[in-house]
Specification:
About 45% of the residues lie in helices and about 15% in strands. By secondary structure, the chain is of the alpha+beta class. The chain folds into three domains: about 80 residues; about 30 residues; about 190 residues, Immunoglobulin-like (Sandwich).
Length: about 350
């Protein structure tokens, strides 16, 4: 891959130098070498335009063939995920159709109306009908996409409190995540970064005098019960972060000094997702690559065999270790979640006395 990139860069440099030489030649006054294009030049350029059109279509088809699963349609793991995937697919279809038509017209017209000796171009000062058509159609299409997007966004963000969502805080700091559960009362205690006290092991700045904070649970691995609505409250200790959970189609910025929120209902457990054929194929490919780098991976102290897990990632470049800012998410049955929660320490019992 490095060799291919090197060849491409050298090729681009050579083309740039060639173009610079042509520009230099054009700038010189010469009576013996005319730079005016003739019919043969125009015909060649017309054929090149059609050739480039074929190249564009070929690379587009190849991209869909090899990268057509980018929307991750089969891997959505939340109730609202299918709505977002549908919105993305519709948008891609519209873009693909417009790109196909406009690129064809652009390149075909360059070929069909190429310069020929004795042929004169017609000039139209304006055409109200054409201008109306190419204005109103994009307006209608874009308005439809925007309205559909707004409805989809409202369905996600309008969290119904009657559903009794489980409240979880996601706390971001360079370069790790913490999660805080509301405990038995499902109410998060008050918190402020100014209350952080490492000597007391109060790493999130939770108000120790707040009654609602006593049963809060702070963990470094996020567990979620399947089928249970979850309302995430998000804070940042230092810089702008972004809580990104790709398989749940969830992303929200974590802004210092304020609390943002995002909610969803997980629908597929970790165990079920590991049985997904697409996931199994990707895991197999990853493990094949890891076996090829076995010595390097073992030297780094990592497990050789990779197993799929949901992840919480940071999707804002927040510093030198941004790439490694992630937290494991486990979606499980309600019984498994209750058993795990019973093993966790409450905030009041985790403080250093």
């Amino acid at each position: 891959m490095t060799a291919l990139l090197t060849i491409i860069i050298v090729l681009f440099v050579a083309i740039a130098l060639w173009q610079m030489v042509k520009i230099f030649d054009l700038a010189q006054v010469s009576t013996s070498n005319s730079q005016v294009a003739n019919d043969k030049d125009n015909k060649i350029n017309g054929y090149l335009m059609m050739g480039f059109l074929i190249f564009i279509y070929a690379i587009t088809i190849a991209s869909f063939w090899y990268l057509g699963d980018l929307p991750l349609v089969s891997n959505s793991a939340s109730e609202h995920g299918s709505g977002l995937d549908n919105l993305m697919i519709i948008t891609m279809i519209v873009i693909f159709f417009v790109q196909t038509v406009t690129q064809f017209l652009l390149h075909y017209f360059a070929y069909k109306y190429r310069g020929e000796k004795g042929k004169k171009a017609l000039f139209y000062a304006d055409n109200n009908t054409l201008e109306f058509v190419w204005t109103i159609i994009p307006v209608i299409v874009l308005a439809g996409l925007i309205i559909y997007g707004l409805f989809t966004w409202n369905d996600i963000m309008n969290i119904d409190k009657d559903d009794d969502p489980m409240v979880v805080e996601l706390y971001a700091q360079q370069f790790n995540w913490k999660a805080r559960y509301g405990g038995d009362d499902n109410v998060l205690g008050k918190a402020n970064v100014r209350l952080i006290d490492l000597d007391r092991a109060n790493i999130l700045g939770v108000d120790e005098d707040d009654p609602n904070a006593q049963d809060d649970v702070i963990v470094t691995e996020l567990h979620l019960p399947v089928g249970k609505p979850v309302l995430f409250k998000m804070r940042s200790q230092d810089v702008l972060h972004s809580a990104y959970m790709p398989h749940f189609r969830a992303q929200m910025n974590c802004v210092p000094g304020m609390v943002t929120q995002f909610g969803f209902t997980p629908t597929v457990t970790t165990a079920e997702m590991r049985q997904n054929p697409d996931i199994q194929e990707k895991v197999a490919n990853i493990n094949e690559l890891r076996r090829e780098r076995q010595a390097e991976i073992e030297e780094a102290g990592q497990d050789l065999i990779y197993e799929f897990d949901y992840l919480l990632l940071c999707n804002k470049i927040c510093g030198k270790s941004h790439y490694n800012m992630q937290m494991k998410i486990i979606v499980e049955t309600q019984e498994e979640f209750d058993a795990w929660m019973a093993e966790q320490k409450m905030f009041a019992n985790s403080l250093n006395k």
